[in-house]
Hints:
Elements: H1 7-38, H2 43-71, H3 73-92, H4 97-125, H5 130-138, H6 140-160, H7 168-176, H8 179-191, H9 198-202, H10 206-212, H11 216-237, H12 239-242, H13 251-266, H14 268-297, H15 302-314, H16 317-328, H17 333-366, H18 373-377, H19 384-404, H20 406-439
Amino acid sequence: MTSNLQRNKLFAASCLALLVTSLSFGIRAGILNDQGVKFHLNASELGTISATAFWGFPLAIIIGGFIVDIIGMKKLLVGAFVFHLVGIVLTIFANGYWTLFLSTLLIGIANGTVEAACNPLVASLFTDNKTTKLNHFHLWFPAGIVIGTLLVFGLDKTLAGGVADKPYWISQVEIGLMLIPTLIYGFLFSRLKFPVTERVAAGVSTSDMYKALFNPLFLFMIICMFGTAITELFTNQWTDVLFRTVTDNAILILTFVASVQVLGRAFASPIVHRLAPQGVLLISAVLSALGIYLLIHLQGTAIFGAAIIFGLGVAFFWPCMIGFVAENLPRTGAVGLNLMGGAGMFGVSIYMIFMGGYYDRLMIKKLPEGADLDAYRSAAPGTDMASAFNNARSAAGPEVLNTTMIIPVVLIVAFAGLVYYMRGKRKLQAVSFELPMRNV
């Protein structure tokens, strides 16, 4: 059956679709500051635009989770292709705040639709090795960020001689490169046959699936997903904004983080099998908190060492959160997996809006009284206004990260409790198994 369904081809096409999703994050992170300058957008407006991708994602992934068993995974992925295509083209020809808002929303919907179909697809294709294969699938998210940020960095250096005051058409070219893998994955999925989801194949009824969603353990994981997603995605998405004054190559910090994530997920199998998903999550929370602390306090090239530690921390968050639910709460089905992803992206969207406004308020406090933030942001390089703006950014960035660091610290406590709970649960299951054997 697996051979007939061309399991490997389906998995490869899924990875390519996720690559497009992550390219949108990596390239947007690289051009976010350029869009702010081109269209005179403050940090709050940039935060709202970035957040629309995270609004569209949970909207699509939650709706997709509820309908995937009805319409099938193939139709969802065709829809993702259409949304990606329209969103990318609209981003290329954006002319201000509202076109950027709409195009980013459409890309977010496309991204969520990809995960709504591909997470249950991977779990259904590899029922005996879910968490490891979900790690292998999700390594293409940071891989796309690496590719996207390196494309932005390389084209900026090649075509503009640097990232300062580059022509905006270069950013449009960078966005347009996403069309290539989009067209390829759309073609591949149109030709492949798909299985039913694992829940349908196992004969678990729809009513039993919905009942499983109220399991206290599942609700606990949903809450934790808010924190893991914010820790990873907010920090990554705002790298170029927060570290522009710390290093001349701020976007390469994101590249370092994503590269470590790729390697971590590629070699996840022995780690996951030895520690179980909950053990990996606990270690990830510790390293994430330490990584953010070091990002705040280190300067110059040392900050790339901090990026490596942070990358190790967030490498396993997303796939192990979904893998834990797939392994330990399988009756929640595709809806459970997609509610996890939707919760994470929704949490990031709210946090981005809040932190965008917080960042603007910090900047205003650190500029001369009565300063026009947009005027300082658009000031010519080398002027007193530009220097004052850079000094304000240098002071505001660490304060934003310091606030964000609270989240992985709380997660350390939460995941320590999860490890303790799962150990107790397994001991109880072992005793329950031994008692009937002794009676025999």
